[in-house]
Amino acid sequence: MRVLSAVACLSLAASSAAAQGSLAGSVRTADGRPVPQLVLQLEGPASRAIVTGPEGRYRVVDLPPGEYSLAVQAPGFLLSPEPRVTVRAAAEVRLDLVLAPAPVRERVVVTATRGEAAASTVGMSVTVLDRDAIASREASSFLRLVQDVPGVAAARTGGLGAQGSMFVRGGESRYARILVDGVPINEPGGAFDFGSALPFEYERVEIVRGAASSLYGTDALAGVVQIVTRRAGVGAPPDVRLEGQGGSFGTWQASLAGAGRAGRFDWNAGAFRLETDNQAPNSAFEETAAVASLGGELGQRTTIRFALRAADSTHGTPGQTAFRRPDLDASFERTDLVLGGSLRHARNRIIHQLQAGVASSDQLTKNPLDSGCYVPSADGMTGALTLCDFPDPAGFQNDSARLSLGYQIEAQAGGRHLLTAGVDVERETGELGSRGGDLLSPQRTNAGFYVQDRLVLGRRWFVTLGGRLERNDSFGWTAVPRAAVAVRLGHGQTTILKASAGAGIKEPDFFQSFGLSFFARGNPDLEPERSATFDVGFEQRFLDDRLRAEAVYFHHDYRDQIAFSLVDPTTFQGTYVNLGKTRAQGLELVVEAAPRKAVSLSAAYTFTDGEVLVSASDFDPVYAAGEPLLRRPRHQGSFTARLGGERLSAALTVVAVGERADSDFQFIGLTHNEGYARVDARARGRIARGIEAFVVAENLLDRHYQEALGYPALGRSLRAGLRLRLGGSSPSP
Which of 75, 100, 102, 97 has its CA nearest to residue 84? Predict the structure, then answer.
C-alpha cells in the first residue's frame, strides 16, 4: 500500500507540473536597446518578481494557467497600458516588451558596466547624450557638445581645431579613458587632444564619472568617455542625408551620409569637409573625415559589427596672441584612424563577445621659420624675460598606435546575478621626436583580466562589485577594485540613493618611461599614477516623470603623479619621478524638466574644490602645494531651454564658468583666469518634405574671454545651413 501511495503521489505531482505553463520574452527600449537587470512584476494566479538577463531576456516557468499582467519596476520607463497575457497549461507563451520613454526618460548605458544597464541601476554618475540630444545641440565641436555635462570642464587654446582638453572631476586632462565604438584611442600615457574632434554621425556619447580602471585598466583615473558611431535605425527605411552650412570667420561645411538595411545587415556611412579661418592670424582649420558602421546577423544568435572613423586635419598655431605677436608659420597636422570589429554570440543566459581594434594618431608640429624674439606683456604687466622662437625645420613628430584585443563573457546566474568576466590585451607603439634627429621608437604590451557581479536584491537594491588584475610592461602587476550600489525608495520607486567607490591607474607616457634625452632621461622604474574615488548622491523624480533632480557629492584623490625632477642642477640633467598628489572634491547638481511635450528644460551646476597637496613641479608657483588645480573652475553651471517639435524648434543655452587658476607660462606673473558667461542659441524648421533649414549662434553676446590664458576665444559666430533627407521616415510638412 505504501508503494502504491508513493506512486500515486508522484503521478499527481507529474500531472500538476504538466498542467503548469511558462512565459518568456525580451525587454527593449523604443530604439531597440535591450535592458538587462530590469525588475518586472508579474501578477495573476501567481505573483512573481522577474529580473531580465543578458539581451533583456526573461523566462518564468511553473505558472498556473490564467490571465497575467506585467508591470515594470523602474523609473523613467513606461509600459502603458500594462500588457496582459494568457498562460495555458503545458505551453510556453512569448511576450516581448517595448518600453516607452517617460517625459524625462531613463537612459540605457553600456560604458559603466561594459554591458547594457539602466542608468538608475548602476549606482555610478553617468551622463548619456543620445541621438536626439546630440542633434538638438547643433554643436560645432565635441567640447561644445559636452559643455553642460556636470563634473566636466573644458579648455581650448583658441578657435575651432585648436588644442582642446577635458577635465573630469578635477583630474588631469590625461585622466579619462576615451573609447570610440569600444576601441581605446588615448595616446600611450593617457593624453588625448579633443581639438579636432567634431560631432559627425554620433549615435551616442556616454560619460562615466569616477575611477573605472576595474573594467578598463590604464587611463581611467577620473572617468570614461565613449563615442558610438551612428547606426541604421531598427525597422527604418534607407535614407540619404546631405547638409551644407556656412557662416562667420569664413566657415563652411558640407557632409553626405546614408544608412539602410539589406536583409540581415545594416550599414551607415558618411563623409564631411570643414574649413574655417577662425579669428586670430594663422589659425585657419580644415578637416576631412569619414565614418562607417556595418553590422549584421550570422544566424539567429550571432552578430558581427565593424566601425571606422578617420580624419585628416591641419591647424595654424599662432600661439598666445593675447601676450605676444602671432607666429605666422607654425602649424599642426594630424591624421587619426580608428577601426574596430566585434563578434557577439548570445544564448538565453550567456553572451560571448570578441572585440578587436586599432587606433592610430599621426601628429606633426611644424615651425620652419625663426620668428625672432619678443617680450610678452598683458594688462600693463611685462614679462621678466625676453623669449625667442625655437624653429624646427624638420618638424616634431608624435605618432602612436594602439592595437587592442578582448574577450568577454556575460552570464546570468541564480536569476539575480549578472556575471561579467573578460581579458584585454593592448600593444602600444610609437615614433616620437624631431624629424631632424633620431626618433624614439618605444613599444609596450599591457594585459588585464576583470570580473564583475551585478546583483539584484529584492526589488529595490542593485549592487555592482568588480575588480581587475592589470599587467603593464612599464610597472608590472597591480589590482584595482570597484563597488557601487543603487537603492530605490518610495511609492513607485521614484527616489534613488546611490554610491560608488573605485580605484584608477595610469601608465607613464613614452617619454617618461623610455626617453633618451640627457636633459629628460626616462625612468623605467616609475609606478603608475593612481586614484581613489568615491561619490554618494540621490536622484528624485516628480510629477509622473516630468521632473528629475539629482545631487552627487564626489571625492577624488590623485597620487603618485609623475613629475620632472632635476638630478644635477649644474648640468640641468633631469628625469621623472612619482611625486605629485592632488585632491578634488565637490558637488554636482542636475535638474531636468519636461512640463509639456514641446518644452524641455535642463540645468547643471558643479562645485569643485581642487587643491595641490604635494607639488609636482619645482619651476612654476601655480603647481605649488596649497594652490588650486590648473584650469579647473571652482564654479561652473549651465541652463538650456528647448521649445518646439519636429516642424519648428528653438533652443538657448547659457554656460557660466567661474574664475580658475591658470598660468601665462611666459614669465609675466598671471596666475588666474577670469570667469565668463557665454550664450548659444539655435533654431531649425522644416520648409518642405525632407528639407530643413537651421541657424546657430555661438557666443551670441560676443563676450571676450579666454578658456586658456593667452588664447582669445572666438567672438560671436553665426552659422546657417540646409539639410536634405531623401527616404527615411520624414513626415510631411
Answer: 97
HEC secondary structure over 8-31: HHHHHHHHHHHCCEEEEEEEEECC
- Whether 220 contacts 207, CB under 8 Å: no
Identify the pLDDT of residue 12: 40
Q: What is the DSSP string of 638-685?
A: EEEEEEE-SSEEEEEEEEEE--EE---SSSS---EE--EEEEEEEEEE
Phi, psi of 236 (to 5 degrees): -80, 140
d(Cα 720, Cα 531) in Å, to the nearest integer? 44
What mean pLDDT is predicted for residues 644-673?
93
- In tens, the pLDDT along 430-445 reads 999 999 889 999 999 9
- Angle among Cα 269, 273, 279 to the nearest 5 degrees reads 145
Q: Which of 53, 60, 23 is nearest to 38 (CA)?
A: 53
**Domains, the chain, ordered by start:** 18-101 (2.60.40.10), 108-226 (2.170.130.10), 227-727 (2.40.170.20)
- pLDDT one-digit tens code per residue, 252-298: 999 999 999 888 899 999 999 999 999 999 999 999 999 999 999 99
Is 71:38 a contact under the CB 8 Å cutoff? no
- Calculate the alpha carbon distances from 280 to 157, 320, 485 in Å: 11, 10, 49
Give ∠ CA 518-522-523 in degrees, rounded to 5: 130
Q: How far apart are CA 287 and CA 303, in angstroms?
A: 33
Backbone angles phi, psi at 497, to 5 degrees: -95, 140
DSSP string, 90-107: T-EEE--EEEEEPSS---
Residue with cell 587658476: 661
Round to whole Å and give the CA distance between 507 and 473. 9
